[in-house]
Task: structure prediction
Amino acid sequence: MHIRQIAVQYDVDADRLLLRVRTADEQLFAVWLTRRLCLRLWPHLESLVQRVGAAQALAQAAPLAVATPQASAMLADTARERTLAQADFSQRFEVAPTAQQPLGTQPLLAHTVQMTPLAQGRLQVAIRDAQQRSVQLELDASMAIAVRELMVTALRQADWGLALDAPALQAEPHVLN
Result:
């Protein structure tokens, strides 16, 4: 799936985050993220985004090198700054009238999220609902960083009391539900 656009917004009435993904072939996927899931998801997402950002920066700079934890943190910060300088968060999320919705018109209510770091600074995110409907995203480091920033904005609006600036956890493949 080639992602064209991603949006994360807080819905006051539903008291949930709405993650929407539009693909290059005009497919639309929508996922509700609850407060409970976000509380568990956030520290792991933060850690994995740092990890893939550092991995991508290291692969570009010195493919055979191994970074110390301090160097990894600096590489992750550099990747974040570079991505944010190039990102355009002002565009509205667009839905073409002909967009297909493979999972239906109602957003999937996320029950399980599995995140796995891949080679070359990529992050795989699989989201399933209780009925086992699912969507799988593969994000490069820049897209993962952008999703993190969109979530920070939405989580601040939600005011759910998440520690958005807390230190990241050590990242391994994660399954959250």
Observations:
- The beta strands are 3-11, 16-23, 28-33, 108-109, 112-118, 122-128, 134-140, 174-176.
- The helical segments are 35-61, 69-86, 141-158.
- The first strand starts at residue 3 and ends at 11.
